[in-house]
Design a protein that fits this description.
Blueprint lengths: L4 H16 L1 H16 L5 H30 L2 H36 L9 H29 L7
């Protein structure tokens, strides 16, 4: 049996949305990469960006996996699995973005440096990437759920 036109359209649309998700991911990657260049090798400073690097890596893996499965027409088999991973990654993005936004506010309002190496432009770039990636994940999760629940053709 071939795939229905509706399922193909939704599956391909979801795959394209996953590919377009590289743009907010790139903002996040740029902010984390620039902040990491400011580290001077101290373990405690590396621990501050370790979770961000995990989320950056996980985000691109999910985007690539969703794009591949979308173009292969296999989203019906694993939409719940991928949505669960997107939910966890989105939670981590929102959690860390909240911390980074609070750090940015402390820097702007009170000139309080939470870390000596983490300057305001880096905090803003990381927070912008995290917020935009979380918003994109929400859009992607909606399309993933719709394309994964499209019924199979009955002919």
């Amino acid at each position: 049996m071939g795939l229905s036109i509706q399922y193909k359209g939704l599956s391909y649309t979801t795959a394209v949305i996953a590919i377009l998700g590289v743009a907010p991911w790139g903002i996040f990657l740029g902010g984390v990469a620039k902040a990491t260049t400011e580290l001077d090798g101290k373990i405690i400073k590396q621990a501050e960006v370790m979770l961000e690097w995990y989320v950056v890596a996980a985000q691109i893996v999910y985007l690539v996996a969703i794009a591949i499965l979308g173009f292969a027409g296999q989203l019906r088999r694993c939409d719940t699995f991928l949505n669960n991973f997107l939910a966890v990654n989105s939670f981590l993005l929102i959690y860390r973005a909240t911390i980074r936004i609070n750090q940015a506010q402390a820097l702007v309002d009170d000139d309080v440096y939470v870390s000596d190496w983490l300057k305001l432009p880096y905090v803003r770039a990381i927070a912008a990437g995290q917020v935009s990636s979380a918003a994109w994940n929400f859009l992607l999760a909606v399309f993933l759920a719709i394309s994964g629940s499209t019924p199979e053709p009955t002919d």
